[in-house]
Give the backbone structure.
Amino acid sequence: MATWLHRWDATADRRAIFLRCYALMTCNVLDSLDSGRFSDPEGALRLLERFSDYYFATIELIPFVGTLPPAWQAAHRLAADPNASACEVLLLGLNAHVNNDVPQALADRLAADWPTSPSRLEAIRADFWNIVGVIADSLDAAQQQMATRADRLLACIDVEMRPLARPAVRSMRDVITAWREGIWEDALTLLTAGDLHWRAAIRDDIEHAAWKRAHLLVCDIDQRDRLVALGTHELHQVFPPHGPGSACRIGASTCDSWAPSVA
């Protein structure tokens, strides 16, 4: 992480905004492993390492951007937009990692011990929830850290920040906490897929739900603050591709593919 941060800081590459937050969160989880908070610290460490494998794969695939999951395409694209606030760059990186990478990494981790007993599965779930709790607890420190850097005038606490970013950021800690149940369900669904065809279809659902949340975090979409916290299955039910929309900030010409179907 330090190597990439140094490289991106030297070139003013704003992908460093998320990576700096990710490094802080990782350090906080590592510091908590010996606190007694986790029933299986070694297993939690393996899970953390698997998370990072997914993240760094997106960096290595940057020259082949078309092969990236759509949420990561959106996050990297917004990081290159000089009109995007530091807060928005952070949010899209968090969304892509938490909602795209983590369910798949968690499924990989569960597969190593599968099948397992209900008590063991519950212990893994509790440790995963604790990791998400540390991530959520790290957000305030990450925002304060952003405010001390060169782009502080665009950071989350800046009074001049565009209004669209405010509601999602103010509740982002709670939103990430709310996501954990859906992430766990996505991981179990992926893990127990009947065959490779279904596994690919489930992975596609997970990746496109993360993309929808990217739109909800930075685009002007009705009911976005409620919709962004929904799990994958419910989000696809109430937020299908249809209906008129507004200007899109993460790649499409409009958000006409992302209008909610309920009032």
Summary: The longest helix spans residues 118-147. The two ends are 43 Å apart (CA to CA). Confidence is low (pLDDT under 50) at residues 150-170. The chain has one domain: 2-221.
